[in-house]
Amino acid sequence: MSQAALSAVATLAPGSAAQAKPRSGLSLKNLAYTPLWNIILIVTGSALFAFGAKAVVFEQGLITGGLFGASLLLYYWTDILSPGTWSVLLNLPLFVLALFFISRRFLIYSLFSVVTVAVSYEIIQFELGITQQFYAALAGGVICGGGSGIILRSLGSGGGLDVIAIILHRKYNIGIGKFYLLFNVALFSFSLTQLSIDLFIASVIFVAVSSVSLDYVLSMFSQRKLAYIISRENAQIARALLERGWQATIIKAKGAYSGKDQDILMTITNNLCLKQLEEMVFTVDQNALFVVENTFNVLGSVFGKRKQY
């Protein structure tokens, strides 16, 4: 493994003895703000979501969560227009709100996503041939959740509830997850008047799987491992990290039992480099304490920028 692949580790606290100079060169942090990258994400995610909705969800008569789920339910109820068309119509007034309360860039990207989903839904003429509702809920949840996650990695959204959720979160600090939960509870409660109990349960399973898939896609490129190292040889371990182009933070601590001052070495790495970090630590000190935690996302410094709509 090349040394360049091992450089994604944590920032160093100002003034600590093991501070490394920032590396020069082209950074990929700004890639998330380029129009081309956002268009690629939106087109890919929207097409994937539309494929799952058309080839799996619609074929089984299920509904998704959110505004597209409401579009499917309206189609099942009225049998006029199409779910894609209903989705565009329901989103239009929400985009007016987005223009005033969020940003023009967010509006453009989100509108592009909604139109791409609607167009992709109309042109896709394919079904996976899944006959069991339970399997359809699992497959559809993975596909649609993955597509939604890719869209949300852009500077836009899939429209619909995302617009309202962001506005409520900014203005009234209402959790985005809570709003989604309340809306979906209302949507699925109403769907009981249109769907059989089997389709209702399968749709709930679909939404649960979709949420897990979405979270995984959102975190898979940003998730890091946070490592705490407690050792009498922390100074030597810190030097070993710096020699490999890594960085670390020295945290001052005190033993609860001994009352002695103790340095804790904190560093951030990824799954690929974690084993090498472990090997490095225990090569220096076999009696070291090595604690690893999962992180959902790491922003700032040498890592990605905070997404601003």
Low-confidence stretches: 1-27
Strand order of the largest sheet: 2-3-1-4
Q: What value does the Rg take, in angstroms? A: 24 Å
**What about the largest sheet?**
4 strands, antiparallel
Order of helices and strands: HHHHHHHHEHEEHE
* Silhouette: elongated
Question: Given the structure, what is the number of helices?
Answer: 10
**Amount of beta strand:** 5-15%
Q: Count the E strands.
A: 4
Helix content: 55-70%
Describe this entry's structure for a reader.
The structure is a single chain. This protein is α+β, with helices and mostly antiparallel strands. It folds into 2 domains: 4-22 and 224-295, Alpha-Beta Plaits (2-Layer Sandwich), CATH 3.30.70.120; 31-220, no CATH class. 56% of the residues lie in helices and 9% in strands. The protein is built from 10 helices and 4 strands, in the order H-H-H-H-H-H-H-H-E-H-E-E-H-E. Strands 2-3-1-4 form a 4-stranded antiparallel sheet. Strand 2 and strand 3 form a beta hairpin. Helix 2 packs antiparallel against helix 3 (83-101), helix 2 packs parallel to helix 7 and helix 9 (234-243) crosses helix 10.
What are the SSEs and their pairings?
Elements: H1 35-60, H2 66-78, H3 83-101, H4 104-123, H5 133-152, H6 161-172, H7 176-191, H8 197-220, E1 224-230, H9 234-243, E2 249-254, E3 261-269, H10 271-284, E4 289-295
Antiparallel strand pairs: 1-3, 1-4, 2-3
Brief overview, please?
56% of the residues lie in helices and 9% in strands. It has 309 residues and is of the alpha+beta class. Strands 2-3-1-4 form a four-stranded antiparallel sheet.
